[in-house]
Amino acid sequence: MSRAGEPIGLFEERNREQMNMKISKIVIALLLCFFILKVNGQAALNDSSANNNDSKIKHKSFIVPAILIGYGVVGLTSPALKHLNSNIRNELDAQHLGRTHLDDLTQYAPALSVYAINAFGIPGRHNFKDRTIVMATAYIIMASSVGITKKASDVERPDGSNRRSFPSGHTANAFLGAEFLYQEYKDVSVWYGVTGYVVAAGTGFLRMSNNKHWFTDVAAGAGIGILSTKIAYLVHPFFKRTLFKDKEHLNGMVVPVYNGEQYGLGLTITF
């Protein structure tokens, strides 16, 4: 018997429910902190001037992705964060949310939205050529970073399918696109970027509910995605002056592709 004559079974069940509520509050608090830091970090940007100078980015704008990546890296060895990872996974399993492949599609939605919005006649920050150079640069940075880190970290996925859990590539992809969408359309309406980040956060949540990633994987993936896009905008003026200085006209399209097993993006460019 527990305190006040309460049966042990009911007492333990109540403790589990209270623990699950605490875990849920912790997760929500962390996500809110990341979002607040993100908003504050974006306010520190100095790249929305009329001359559209991509190189004018203050160091403070890199605080949010640095915190996200740092949190994920610390989680590789921290017993407390590993315990939190396990508790979050158990909480999601207890919700019986089921498995879905929707995250295979939502990871590309923010980036594709940039081209879709432009196709509907709403011009963004850059023309097709410049935004495609930025996006391609960001994807190269993100893909290489995620691939190298996955191999080096050797973290087992929650479902035990392989040891390529850290960081989350889907989440990195989604947050890369969300930051890309924000940067291209923040001067039109900040809500484009907010929508992109909601979709990206949803992608990260789905990766956890699908039992494919730990919370630290998702946090690090989000940081890598944001950072990749920021770096791409930072180096874009250099690439434009050197590699693409003679390419005044660049046409093409970006489309999602599926080969029956894997999803991806197809890029067709005509010089």
Automatic annotation (TrEMBL):
Task: Name all Phosphatidic acid phosphatase type 2/haloperoxidase domain ranges.
Answer: 133-233
Taxonomically, the superkingdom here is: Bacteria
TM regions (residue ranges): 61-81, 190-208, 214-235
Query: Has the keyword DNA repair been applied to this entry?
Result: no
Which keywords has UniProt assigned to this entry?
A: Membrane, Transmembrane, Transmembrane helix
Q: Which Gene3D superfamilies match?
A: Phosphatidic acid phosphatase type 2/haloperoxidase
This chain belongs to the protein called Phosphatase PAP2 family protein
Q: Give the species.
A: Mucilaginibacter defluvii
